[in-house]
Amino acid sequence: MAEDTFMGVRREKIDWCPTIDYSKCNFCMECDEFCPHDVFERRDDDPKLVVANPRNCVVFCRACSKTCGPDAISFPSKPETIVAIKKIREEEGEQ
Amino acid sequence: MKRAILPCNGLDKQHGVLARELALRLSESEGAEIICPVLLNNSPARYEKALADASLLVIDGCGTRCASKLASKLGLKVDDKVQVSEQAKNAGLETGGSLRPGPVGMQLVDIMEAGLIAEEKAAVSEDTAVGFESPTQFLTVTYDKFIFKIPTEGYLFNENDCWVRVIGDRARVGVSDFVQQNMTDITFFEPAQVGKEIEQFDEVGSLESGKSMMDALSPVSGRIAAVNTQLVDSPGLVNDDPYGSGWIAEIDIRDFDSDRELLLDAAAYSKTVEKKAAEALH
Questions:
Q1: I want to staple B189 with a disulfide (CB 3.0 to 4.6 A). Which of B150, B183, B231, B282 is the partner?
Q2: Mean pLDDT, rounded, of chain B
Q3: Residue B176 confidence (pLDDT) above 90
Q4: For domain B138-281, which CATH number applies: 2.70.150.10, 2.60.40.10, 2.40.50.100, 3.30.1360.120?
């Protein structure tokens, strides 16, 4: 189960999850083996690995990308994500 | 102490080839002993003496981290680690696909060698602040047979289970009691680079146990002023004293007022721990 909020902001409002570059991915599944939050899912059809549960991804964690031999995993910018979270908190605080 | 080097054997990948080049370079410049991963895997006893008398540097070529995994499988104590693909990314160098090292690859080897030498110097010259004593006042969260301590005096937390304590312009950061209990025995610590400018939530060191690996994410932005080099030899200090001698890094803070907006006090963090404990331990 993932956290349903991060700093009081609903998780689905925060754009933070890995993106797989399929031109680099060799489907070694190291990232899926590493991630304890079931963010990835293996498929029988192509592509054999997908980001199936992006909202399970721990906000600001990018540890799975370190396990990636071909460097096929990327994440959004942290500073931009911080600004976005603060903006949502501000807007929701005003309501 | 003399270095022993366990490099990636990746002769089929460019970054693996550069791992080998870096090992050769350090062997030539420092007289470090190179450990062949294939022979080590087949006959660990062959290197028993070399490993007992030296500090062990593991050089991984890529994120598959075969050399690290071999060290972990054999229960070796790793003192330092380098990953070529990460270093290439940090330096913005594209080393190409050739299995013979080219000029850009060798430039990366130069950078990595200089970094390792500077790291050794930084380990003795870093400027650690005073006044960060271990806390004495705690809130506790109890879940099943687990009791998680959360210090109340001047400690703030991010939702990624890292704490910060600020004195003047200097912050000390670490991971919470919840992290150390959840990871169980921490066996490896990789410090961040002293002098590096970081944003809030950037990686400030990483921890590994038999159970998992975790990047500590900094609760504050600023410049890394010191790292806890004691943890390199004794990563278990994080288990023994996560809020005191198990600290991870000190940071000269840049914009604490802004960082603070995304931090929790002990009472608020205890609610986070309650939720996480229920998910992690049920």
A1: B231
A2: 90
A3: yes
A4: 2.40.50.100
